[in-house]
Amino acid sequence: MSQPLGRPRDSRVDEAIATAARQVLAEQGYARLTVDAVAARAGVGKAAIYRRHATKQQMIFAAVMHDLDLATPPDTGSLATDLAAITRDILAALATPPPGVVPALLADVHADPAMAAAFARTFVRAERDCVTEVLERAVARGELPRLPDPATVHALLLGPIFAWLFLLLEDPGKAPAFADTLARGVGHLLGRDGGA
Amino acid sequence: MSQPLGRPRDSRVDEAIATAARQVLAEQGYARLTVDAVAARAGVGKAAIYRRHATKQQMIFAAVMHDLDLATPPDTGSLATDLAAITRDILAALATPPPGVVPALLADVHADPAMAAAFARTFVRAERDCVTEVLERAVARGELPRLPDPATVHALLLGPIFAWLFLLLEDPGKAPAFADTLARGVGHLLGRDGGA
């Protein structure tokens, strides 16, 4: 039975495959990675990989997702600094995989309904939970009069960082400063009307 | 000699190939489109396609780009409504290609330096010119004290719409309302400090 994507069983084989996939990805790039190379690196048979992942793309997705820390950042005591922590986490998640991997995985997500479901269930939901929790904290503190639409705030936080790195091909070295600017801007908008 | 990507010569063959590519794309989807099918539909030989486009991916890119209207929107007399016009144009550009095509092309752009250069030279530059012109109009009107960083504003306008459609997989039917919300938010931020 195949695994839920991005949530491998906690076992040494799962870990070995994910680690090997990330190493091969970093060395060979997305297009040239083969399941054979990952199996050899992990010291497992191809069957062990295909028992866990229906396709090469799903294997890569799981390995990349597995490596991300998508926990909600600790409560910093203010919406502004909580938002800055989220944009830094989003930037780290997008900038961690080797070059080209994020756009390639996104194309795969749009080509494979199983991957789309897994993407929604893992990356999108984890980030949405972070955004929602940070907004709820601000409401509880009295910083916001009511909960803004989490989907809107999520798009405002994630989209510009994705655009900076992958659409506009801007300098990644300037991305951290851009992420901070973005967090301040979104914080300002939320503070203005309690909703973006 | 191959053509500059996305800027086909003004000729009937160029038009026929681009039109055929868009039709096959809409019918077959990105992954199943073949150069043979496009050549047959266009009534040209494969050689005619490969004289213009080095790869299938470059042919698709040119066909999709060719179909987009990336002109700067007319001066509406205010920054707020100019920004709303830009976000509507961005949404139209991203939502026009058949499902999956934009993410697939983005992956191709990151896998092929020639496509990355063409993408920067066409889509990114055209949108950046729109953004810059709209900001310059606002400065000329006295709505903004100085020109904000166009790259930052571009990322703020493009990114959330891309995220809504392709990362968060939100309802495309709600994208126009989201684009308007976004334009208002960015306009507010720019008005606040003359720079995002």
From TrEMBL, chains A, B:
> Which InterPro entries does the protein's record reference?
Homeodomain-like_sf, HTH-type_TetR-like_transc_reg, HTH_TetR, Tet_transcr_reg_TetR-rel_C_sf, TetR_C
Coiled-coil residues are none
Question: Which Gene3D superfamilies does the UniProt entry name for this protein?
Answer: Homeodomain-like, Tetracycline Repressor, domain 2
Domain HTH tetR-type, first and last residues per copy = 11-71
Q: Which residues bind DNA?
A: 34-53
Keywords for this protein: DNA-binding, Transcription, Transcription regulation
Q: Where is the signal peptide?
A: none
Q: Which domain of life is it from?
A: Bacteria
Mention one GO molecular function.
transcription cis-regulatory region binding
Q: Name one Pfam family in it.
A: TetR_C_11
Please give the name of this protein. TetR/AcrR family transcriptional regulator
